[in-house]
Amino acid sequence: KSFLNHTAYLSCYFPNSQEIEIKDLRVFWQKDSVEVVHEVYHGQEKHDNLSPKYINRTKMDIDKWTLQLLNAGIVDEGHYTCIIQQKDKGSSKVIHTSECLLHIIANYSQPEIARLHTGELKPNEYLNLSCSSSGGYPEPKQMMWLISQENTTTRLMSQMNVSQDAVTKLYNVTSKLNIPVTTNTLTNISCLLHLGEQLGSLVSVPLAI
């Protein structure tokens, strides 16, 4: 995983137990088995075969056999293969391959609750609220509402509307809530955005009614 516009680190996991020198090897990375991302040919970086979008965006750490992909974007998500070849009697043979999947993460803004009505609310009227969060990636799992009254908290699932920016590929999320106003009871309403098992959740500042 790498954060959007940060450096992604893709490792070859090459043990090099025989301590072969880099000048005796050809090391290259491919994306989705199609594009050449980086190539080191007998110790020298070679640019002839590179996909244009990776030129001047990669660096190799020879000591760690790791590729640095600079300014990682959502279009860089995908399947990467590291291939190491050694010269053998005039030809080259593959002595090591490894694979990794790159996932890009962009932080969503803190969910924010807005009232969709004006004026004072009277008892038994309905409260119309929306919750929104923007600029994140990947697509979130769900958005839910937490309604707390006295010692009980109710979770309400409501439809999550998701839109994706055509250029940046980042997601914006909104959800709406329509609940009756209770009398003589303090109600705290929060909005929770669940991003997935590994990414956790974001919660809004509670709204007190």
UniProtKB/TrEMBL annotation:
The keyword Transmembrane applies. It comes from the Eukaryota. Keywords: Cell membrane, Disulfide bond, Glycoprotein, Immunoglobulin domain, Membrane, Receptor, Signal, Transmembrane, Transmembrane helix. One of its GO terms (cellular component) is external side of plasma membrane. Residues 1-98, 111-191 form the Ig-like domain. It is a single-pass type I membrane protein. Pfam families: C2-set_2. It is found in: Cell membrane. GO terms for biological process: cell surface receptor signaling pathway; cellular response to lipopolysaccharide; immune response; negative regulation of T cell proliferation; positive regulation of T cell proliferation; T cell costimulation. Signal peptide: none annotated. Its main location: membrane. This is T-lymphocyte activation antigen CD86.
